[in-house]
Amino acid sequence: MGAGQAGTQIVDQVFAHDNIDLRAEALAFNSTIQDLERLNNIPQERWYGVSRNQGLVSGTARGFEEQVTGGFGQTPSASDQVMKRNEGEVQRVLDELYLEMEADPSTLQYAFIFLGLGGGTGCGIAPHLAREIRAYSQSEMDIIAVAVLPNTKLIEGGGSADDDAVDQQITQCENTVYGLDNLEEEVESIMLVDNQRLALDVAEGNEYSEYNRYVADAFLDIVLGAERERTDVDLDVQMQDVDLQDLVRFIDGDGFQAGYATLGRGVRQTESLLGYLLPGKIGRQPIRETGLIADSIDKQTLDGFSPNDATSAVAVAQAPGWCWDEKEISLGSVYDELGYYCANVNAGWAVTNRKLASVTTAFRFDREDVGRIAEIERIAAQEGSS
Ligand SMILES: Nc1nc2c(ncn2[C@@H]2O[C@H](COP(=O)(O)OP(=O)(O)OP(=O)(O)O)[C@@H](O)[C@H]2O)c(=O)[nH]1
Ligand SMILES: [Mg+2]
Fold this sequence. Notes:
alpha/beta; Rossmann fold; CATH 3.30.1330.20; twelve-stranded mixed β-sheet; 17 helices; 19% strand; binds guanosine-5'-triphosphate
């Protein structure tokens, strides 16, 4: 489920990959039709407009455009109110969906909810989506949020930026605290995607597509592992998955509070251009697995990330068969490298048909140990008191 602009855009990137639609169904919730129309991989039948007066409006409903009239302008309490007034609507939507798919609701065991915490729509509606989907499911569910933290570079920049832009970032911090507090009560785990990791000009230009692709790739590796390679006709992919149950156990909370996680991915081509053109071993590139692991740590989706603060880590390593055969990459060293930072490590591997080797890692934290959340809380509190 994608909620709001950031959330639906990232889900759109997830569903840009082949075979995902065999495993999951994409739903897009937003209050702004123009954002929904930018989606390439989520069909209109799976759009749901959030309307002040009408609640949830299906993308194929007559009068969709007239009823869904615009965003909640960075005011999550407004979209929260709409969802409260229309409690049960998400369950109605799911009911229609399951009827249409002729599927059994008790097969609904996992949900992933993507959202930007700084805005008004995703931040306000995501906790409701989580609560209602759990109420609808007839099984014990695990729900994981993938949540974008706003960048706050203008605030720290110290006054040279224009006031409106600074105010907007402060508002986004307030929304983030509001969103996290509500979300924590409804989900097992929150994967953080920190826009602070973007270069300032990229963030200011709203140029998110590359980052969204990166997040989608890392997310799919860690959540689906080799499953993403597998099609219905190709059931014999060699792999040892970190299964989803394991993953959730490694990143979830303590039963009272959600666990936090971050993602990172290191990737290399395993063949030079020559290797793509010529058969056999010509063009094979040596893979340095320690480099892949280091890259996955350097590229975690959190500013100020420190693996030493993590309570546990999960890794998925993927490479062509020869890399495993010739010990270019081994699961043992993934365990060794990550074990250096935290005691609790789980790793899976897969043989891939692609000419790429990758190590993707997720680290789990308690909220108190995420410095960026504390920083955002400070900014939000200062504003509240001034
Ligand atoms: N990583 C990433 N961040 C985004 C993207 N789009 C917006 N953001 C950020 O996500 C946060 C929330 O913004 P939106 O997703 O636009 O907000 P919304 O949920 O649509 O809510 P409204 O305020 O009603 O428009 C902000 O901090 C944006 O800078 C995206 O595609 N990728
Ligand atoms: Mg929006």
